[in-house]
Design brief:
Elements (H helix, E strand, L loop, with lengths): L7 H9 L9 E5 L5 H8 L4 E6 L2 H12 L5 E5 L2 H4 L8 E6 L17 H7 E9 L9 H10 L3 E8 L13 E8 L1
Parallel strand pairs: 1-2, 1-4, 2-3, 4-5
Antiparallel strand pairs: 5-7, 6-7
Bound molecules: S-adenosylmethionine (SAM).
S-adenosylmethionine (SAM) binds next to helix 2, strand 2 and helix 4.
Amino acid sequence: MGRTVHEKTGRHRHFQSLWFGYWGGAVLELGFGLGMSAQFIQEHSPAHHVIIEMNRAIAETARRFAYGQSGRVAIFEGTWQDIVPLLASESFHGILFDTYGMSEADVFRTFTPFLKQAYRLLAPGGTLTYFSDEAAWFSDEHLAALREAGFSRINGELVNVAPPTDCLYWRQPTILAPTIEK
Ligand SMILES: C[S@@+](CC[C@H](N)C(=O)[O-])C[C@H]1O[C@@H](n2cnc3c(N)ncnc32)[C@H](O)[C@@H]1O
């Protein structure tokens, strides 16, 4: 499936939700892609930045990216489904989930199966954000999945975006940037 990225400013506002209430500590990022969010995270100088990326070539790019940073950046190559269960509970203060599904049916909402692990991995007071497929606000289904995972402090911001005309996965002028606190 072809994908292009959102207009840069809008996406940066989206990534910004990761820093809501952030007071330092480790950040976990799932999916390196073009490294836009990784660059943004590095600009905030986290104590430790862990990136999980399943694609071999993209993981290699991520390793080169990590090498060029002054802070601690660790790249784990593999799927989050394999790697996340190996990570210690309450060891992250920020999590950005931005992977995509492997089939048309599964392309959105890849965050849903991750939510319970996100709750386990976040230290109390830590923040989760992710690429959401919602243009207006959290749907009931989405809220139910968050609550079932243990989250109760659920907020977000509607971010204006201007996706390019060839963008295959987003046509709306806004996107919800979730800010989920543990
Ligand atoms: C939309 S891109 C990430 C974009 C990134 N946030 C940026 O700003 O450039 C999604 C990335 O997730 C990776 N990915 C997809 N499924 C994954 C999985 N199950 N585990 C780890 N990485 C995955 C893809 O290879 C791709 O690099």
